[in-house]
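pasting for ref
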Amino acid sequence: MEQYNFSQQGNSVVEPAFQYNGAMTNVNIDNNLAGILNQFDEDYVMDVVKRSIEKRFRPYDQKMPNVVYGFEQQFVSIFANFSSSNDDVAQKRQEVYVDIINTLCAMHNFTFNASDDLDYYSAAYYLYQFLVSEYTTNIITFFTNFLIAERNGIYQSLNLAEFRKNDMALHYSKKIFRDEKLGMIHGCMSYVMDNIQSFDIDFYSVLNHVYADKSIARYIYGLVVDNSNFFRTFYMADVLNPRIAADLQTLIKMNLQTCAANIEPLQ
């Protein structure tokens, strides 16, 4: 898995109150540093994460800023301006990322696999990316890839051939795809979603369908233990949620058209 490149992100997403102004000087450097670090308290970090989770479904602007990167930018600045107190800054930095990880795990019924040599920034970054900042994109990607990979089994187990009788209603969907089974799944999306919630899909399968880079899937899978069933508890709950189901299923259908229209039938 490649290391994350700081240059890939734009402006900081941390609130202005937490921006360190290097031009400001204070005779008492220790007090100045303590005041800055105290602002990164557990309650603040938990509030940021929880508020972000509440707003993570974004049908029209799907990716949110990754606040873990935003925090890291602030710590980089603090390290540079308080080089004589790096141990204190490093301790606070790790506490912040542990708080983020613990909050994410508590809200998703995960157990975190801590280890002595773990890079807590990377762990917090990728967990936050998967669970919050790219949550909507990941749901769409998962269902698109799952429906493509399992199209024959879904077609047969849900007896979609019976829907051929309603040929006029499915005419548009069937014309889009070279594989008729994908056309039937596309045209019967609501029915398909209502029924696949009973499928036994484990956490690694979710990650494997979300990430083209399998090293990221393996990395996240090694970070946490899924104590319930992430697929049913979160992805299925959202795709069947009456408040957002229409938008989310439409986005899945659109992405399926984009990714799978020219896929040939499986032999």
